[in-house]
Amino acid sequence: MKKHLNKQGFTLIELLVVITIIGVLATISFSGYSKFIENARVTKTVAVAKNVFNAMTGYASDNNGRFPQVGDEMKNGGTFTSAEDVFREFMVREYSSDETDFGVDNSPVVLDKYIGEAPTFTDAFSSADGGVHWAVLGNGTQTMKGSTPLAWENSVSGGWDPTWDPTLAGTSDKGRTWSGGKVVLVTVSGKAEALTLESTDTASKLENLGTGSKNAFTAAYTTRDVLDPTLK
């Protein structure tokens, strides 16, 4: 006796269930992929912060342990007044020959690799690029507290103990953070990491250390000079 195969296809409900399952799996996969990409970008930013530390340390080694100071003379004339001056000095002193060594993803600063001609390299970190992504300590030395912030990502408020805006995470706007209100900072000792803000809902400063009332900035010093980016 011959057996007849059931040629009945999927019902509409079964098709909808399958489509729903595929949609959920796709959402989970995309979410995981997005998180993976951001984690990779944060890791890259931490590595760039190390590049900043190495250049700052190179400068200090050539200047009796002093990092670039507000008002100090630059090699080819003029004085340090902004972060752009500092990073252009790194090109002049040949601590780096590629401005993208200091570039960060999801930043208002988009470096074009063109630094201009020696000896001034006036096109490095220019208005065409949007300037510099990093603010740096403006009156530090290698002998100060190792936990002192040396360089940190572009903030909203500027100055010592600045604020960032976690509501801008995922954008390339000035003062944006990474997801979860994290920003990357490197200290005088060379420790580079992503730190969390006090709030993930509104512009705020770095969260306090432990149970105290001080964060990475105020725990080191009440106030210090800062060389902020002037181009945003």
Jot down its keywords.
232 residues, alpha+beta, 5-stranded antiparallel sheet, 2 helices, 5 strands, elongated
Report on the structure:
- With 232 residues, this protein is an alpha+beta fold.
- It has one domain (39-227).
- It is built from 2 helices and 5 strands; from the N terminus they run ααβββββ.
- The chain has helices spanning 12-61, 83-92; strands spanning 134-137, 149-153, 182-187, 192-196, 226-227.
- It has a 5-stranded antiparallel beta sheet with strand order 4-3-2-1-5, with helices on one face.
- It is elongated.
- The model has no long low-confidence stretch (mean pLDDT 91).
What topology emerges from the helices and strands here?
Layout: H1 12-61, H2 83-92, E1 134-137, E2 149-153, E3 182-187, E4 192-196, E5 226-227
Antiparallel strand pairs: 1-2, 1-5, 2-3, 3-4
The H/E string reads: HHEEEEE
Whole-number mean pLDDT: 91
Helix content: 25-40%
Q: Give the helix tally.
A: 2
Based on secondary structure, the structural category is alpha+beta
C-alpha end-to-end distance: 82 Å
**How many β-strands, per DSSP?**
5
Radius of gyration: 24 Å
Oligomeric status of the shown chains?
Answer: single chain
* Biggest sheet details: 5 strands, antiparallel
- Outline type: elongated
How many domain units? 1
Proportion in β-strands: 5-15%
Strand arrangement, major sheet? 4-3-2-1-5
Which blocks of ≥5 consecutive residues have pLDDT under 50? none
